Each structure stands twice: as C-alpha cells, then as structure tokens.
Amino acid sequence: MDATGLLETTERLSKSLTPGDLDHTLSRITAAAVEVLPEVEYASFTIKHSDGRVETVAPTDELLWGVDAAQYKLREGPCYDAATEGVHVLSPDLANDDRFPRYAATAVATGILAQAGLRLFDAPKSQGALNLYSTTVGSFEDLGEIGVLFTHQSAMAIGYAQEIGDLQEALRSRRTIGQAIGLLMERYTLTDQRAFAFLTRLSQHRNVKLRRVSEELVADAQRAGEESLTKS
Predict the structure, then answer these.
(1) CB contact set of 34 (below 8 Å; sequence gap of 6+)
(2) Strand, coil or helix: what is 33?
(3) For 106-165, how does the pLDDT look when each residue is reduced to its tens digit (9 = 90+)?
(4) CA-based diameter of the chain, in Å?
(5) Which of 32, 76, 143, 232 is 20 to 30 A from 149, comparing alpha carbons?
C-alpha cells in the first residue's frame, strides 16, 4: 500500500474506533475490521477469562456464534489458539490446514474457508483475540501494513477503554467509601479520620475489601431508612 492509501486507512480507523467503554470499543473494532481490512467478511472477538471460560463478543454476523462455539468445544482453531496461547494465527486455507482438522470441517461447511486470529490484549483478568473470517481461499496469507496498523490502533483503543473502566471502578469505590465514612461520622459522632480508621479496621478484621464493607454499610442504612418510612 502506498503512503496515500495508508494515510486514508489511518483516517478511516480513527473515525471508526471512537472512544468508549470496553463493550463499545470491541464492537467498533469488529465493525471496522469488516469495513477497513481487505478480505475480511466477518469478525468477532474471543475472550478468555481468568477462570478458563471462553466466550464470543461483538460478532458482526449471527453465523459466528456457531463457528466460534465449535472452536471452544473442540479446543482448536485460529481464534481459540490466538486467545489462549497469545499468538497471531493465520489460516489461508482451512480445509487443508493440518493444525485444525476437526474444526476445519465445521467451518468449511458454513462457508468459512480462511481465517485469522490476532491476539490484541492480555489483561489481568482476561485475554482477547480478534477473529477475522473470509469465504475465499487464500485470504490472510499476509495482513501486511494494513493489518499491522489495524492491530496497533485497536490495541490502543482497547487499552484506553480498559483505563476508562479502571478509572470508573476507582471512582465508584471512592464514592461508596465516602458514603460509608459519612454514615459512621453521623452515627458515632466521629471525625472523618477516625471514621476511616474504623472502616479500615472492620475491613481487616473481616478480611473483606474496603469497598465491600462500605457497600454493606450503605445498603444497611438504605434498608433501615426504607423500613422507617414504611412504618411511619
């Protein structure tokens, strides 16, 4: 691809991969893959969770639910390998790919003749691979500059979405802990420092995270308030 084409692709990607939460970002990536990448007719994500569970996210076509499920059941296929082993896996001719004899029969029967799995993120609680599908033999022999650009841009977008998720989680925790401290200050006439120290000791004694203890205190106070209103 010449410099002009690469620039145009970069601009299309930047418009497609709009900032948002993780679910939104993954959906935009699979849609952009079909729109921007040559030879790609369908796309989805395979997510492997820390408990070993594997699932499909943001498929661009209903066909992929069954195709992906076959990979998970058989524990073989480009997308399964990319999500679980941390590599990019290209299969330009599934029917004659000795690595995936059982899965290939299922894929070819649905019209999927070429496939690629691209590992895009490796987070503490999950790993994810982008799944690309084509009905044309010979697709994905070489993703070239566009593929490198796309995976780079997509990984950046996912990283941003995960940071936003972590920030939102931190803000929720901070807000809940603040509510709990306020309740303790009012109930026991404590300063904010002593209320926080009390909350910390309670967390350590019960071996429960500070946020969880705070959530329980806030929930108990809300229930007590609702019961008081009902009785009155």
Answers:
(1) 40, 41, 42, 43, 60
(2) helix
(3) 999 999 999 999 888 777 677 888 899 999 999 998 876 556 666 766 666 666 566 555
(4) 76
(5) 76
